[in-house]
Design brief:
The complex is a heterodimer of chains A (518) and B (88).
Chain A (H helix, E strand, L loop, with lengths): L6 E5 L2 E9 L3 H13 L15 H11 L1 H5 L3 H18 L11 H14 L2 H17 L5 H9 L6 H7 L2 E9 L9 E8 L2 E9 L14 H25 L3 H9 L7 E3 L6 E3 L3 H22 L1 H13 L5 H8 L9 H15 L16 H4 L3 E5 L5 H15 L4 E2 L13 E7 L3 H5 L2 H8 L2 H7 L7 E7 L7 E7 L2 H9 L7 E4 L5 E4 L11
Parallel strand pairs in A: 2-3, 3-5, 8-9, 8-10, 10-12
Antiparallel strand pairs in A: 1-2, 4-5, 6-7, 11-12, 11-13, 13-14
Chain B lengths: L2 H15 L23 H15 L16 H16 L1
């Protein structure tokens, strides 16, 4: 199913010959199905839900191969060992770009590759996939529209390093969890051509209007920029010619607390294991924030800066300041790295604080602590149960419900999940300090001017006395509105509000853009 | 409680919570969640809790994700099992 041919595109002032190919792949579907059934992954709590149920995925596996259905096939162990990303690298034929894997992983690659090359298996998977696609009338047009609407070439500095030749191969998958969780990507340089292969979990729920949990065109451009940034900074780092011992020495200077990171949208904690990994991570994150500032403005860029910080890129702000307003190829990378390692000892004592956005509440780096649940008195018993069951089912947590007569922010590092009705004036009063703090930010004052009458709001802020902990507060006029605002926050914002007319507004609670590390 | 009573309760809860403009007889039990019935995660939980209250049963808190139920019929069967277990 070849959706779009190569085509010429003009984006802003940048003209490029752009290839966009979107094609289903039976090997990708089989790999996605094995990962979903045997990889221990769960559907996302918020955002698009899988189009294909867990039972459908099991049925697919049973049709393709009884061994992978039962989980007792060596290839299932291989997929588990490699994880989603590396397995997808094998399935898409992009594995050649990887180095640094261990012998066990290399054996798993061989096992998976051999399995996915079996034409009988591929044929069965192709037929089963086509049946699912036809039964659900899955249309890839929204995926193509998302790419076109993403404005990835509208950032002059990103366009400059992207060059004139980009080829994007989208491999949609109906059996993977839907994007943003179900995604993977790879890049390859072929002469001047940059070829991106992007695996995308399709849910038929790609919101192109910016009203959903994720703004998909925004999410997509950040994904494209990730690989553009990776190729560019990888090449710049290689050109420095630093020796392995130099890098080891530099890596040893980075404290362990700063090496933990979370995979974007995967909610998996990882560790930077090399100096290159660490520096590339920071540079790529900063590059994406620069692009977002060019395309969507300071507020959106700040939300991204918060997001990368919450994913463990704790020094992204330092790198952002270094990138400044110059073209990237005007930057003396060697000097920047020298500055970085000089600055590092002074940054070590700096406390790691929660910065948001709302999406970070689902992030394991910030959720691994006790949670306290607060309801204002008028909230119905049924709503309390719905929210508790939701938290248990989707976040996997069973917070203790407090019986206190008023809400009192925790001071012991416990997370507070707060649900209040505006009509409970006395009870909600204890959140007024937050609201005033939010209102002191001019960007959101307009939304909150009538906060006690008709606005539904969800926000997240750090705890004053334990800033690595946070509280997430939902305030609304009714039980129904409370449930709605709880589940309709915008991922990349510190606050989301719905007015009486249902119009959504959102933003960040601070703009630490120019903030210099201590 | 009869199977048909459970089925009607489940279907009415779906129609009510998802704001569908139809009656229980018109909702096909083979309708698929995520495809024919697109509801967000909290609405799905609301449907389940609503059925719980109507049938006077309790379901385990952590077994209620939408992806575990393929069709309306699956959800009906789930509650038939819960009713049998808790009302006998």
């Amino acid at each position: 199913m070849n959706i779009t041919p190569l085509r010429d595109a003009v984006n802003g002032n940048v003209k490029r010959t752009e290839g966009l190919v979107s094609q289903w792949d039976p090997g990708v579907e089989v790999t996605a199905a094995m990962w979903r059934v045997h990889g221990g992954v769960a559907a996302p709590a918020l955002g698009p839900q899988p189009l294909v149920t867990d039972n459908d995925v099991r049925e697919f596996l049973s049709v393709v191969n009884s061994g992978i259905y039962n989980g007792d096939h060596e290839v299932v162990a291989a997929v588990r060992n490699l994880g989603f990303h590396l397995s997808m690298a094998v399935a898409t034929g992009e594995f050649a770009d990887y180095d640094g894997i261990n012998d066990r992983q290399r054996q798993s690659v061989t096992v998976l590759d051999r399995f996915l090359s079996d034409e009988t298996m591929r044929s069965a998977a192709r037929v089963a996939t086509e049946r699912i696609i036809a039964a659900r009338e899955i249309d890839l047009t929204p995926v193509i529209r998302m790419h076109d609407a993403s404005r990835y070439s509208d950032s002059p500095r990103l366009a400059h390093i992207m060059g004139n030749n980009l080829e994007v191969r989208i491999v949609p998958s109906v059996l993977a969890l839907p994007a943003p969780n179900g995604k993977s990507g790879f890049y390859r340089s072929v002469g001047d051509l940059l070829r991106l292969t992007l695996v995308f979990g399709v849910a038929n729920q790609i919101d192109l209007e910016g009203n959903g949990y994720v703004d998909f065109p925004q999410w997509w451009r950040l994904g494209v920029w990730h690989f553009i940034g990776r190729r560019y900074w990888r090449s710049r780092l290689d050109a420095l010619g630093l020796s392995p011992s130099d890098k080891q020495q530099l890596f040893a200077m980075i404290p362990a607390d700063y090496l933990t990171k979370v995979g974007i949208h995967e909610s998996v904690i990882k560790t930077n294991t090399t100096w290159d990994d660490y520096i590339l991570d920071q540079l790529i994150a900063a590059t994406k924030v620069v692009g977002e500032r060019d395309v969507a403005g300071i507020m959106s860029a700040t939300a991204q800066e918060h997001w990368f910080y919450s994913l463990g890129r704790f020094h992204v702000n330092w790198f952002l300041n270094q990138l400044g307003d110059q073209q990237f190829d005007e930057i003396d990378l060697r000097l920047m790295i020298q500055r970085w390692h000089s600055a590092l000892p002074h940054m070590i004592p700096r406390k790691i604080e929660f910065r948001g956005p709302l999406g970070a509440c689902e992030n394991p780096l910030w959720r691994a602590r006790p949670i306290r649940l607060w309801f204002s008195p008028s909230i119905q018993k049924t709503t309390r149960r719905i929210i508790k069951v939701w938290l248990s089912s989707y976040w996997g947590v069973r917070p203790e419900e407090t019986k206190a007569e008023t809400f009192k922010p925790s001071s012991d590092g416990t997370i507070d999940l707060v649900f209040g009705l505006w009509s409970d004036h006395e009870w909600v009063r204890s959140t007024h300090a937050d609201v005033i703090r939010l209102m002191s930010n001019n960007h959101i004052a307009r939304s909150l001017n009538h906060a006690d009458s008709d606005t539904q709001i969800v926000y997240v802020i750090p705890q004053e006395s334990a800033p690595s902990a946070w509280r997430r507060v939902c305030l609304a006029t009714s039980d129904q509105a409370l449930q709605h605002v709880h589940s309709h926050a915008f991922h990349y914002s510190d606050w989301t509000a719905y007015g009486e007319d249902g119009k959504r507004e959102m933003g960040v609670t601070s703009v630490p853009w120019i903030e210099q590390p201590e | 409680m009869e199977h048909t009573d459970v089925a009607r309760t489940v279907k009415e809860a779906i129609i009510r919570e998802a704001s569908f403009d139809m009656n229980a007889a018109e909702l096909d039990e083979l309708s698929r969640f995520g495809e024919d019935i697109r509801v967000d995660s909290i609405t799905f939980i609301r449907i389940v809790i609503s059925v719980e209250e109507e049938l006077d049963v309790e379901t385990p808190d952590d077994a209620l994700m939408q992806t575990q139920f393929k069709t309306v019929a699956d959800l009906i069967e789930f509650f038939v099992g819960v009713v049998e277990e808790q009302h006998t």
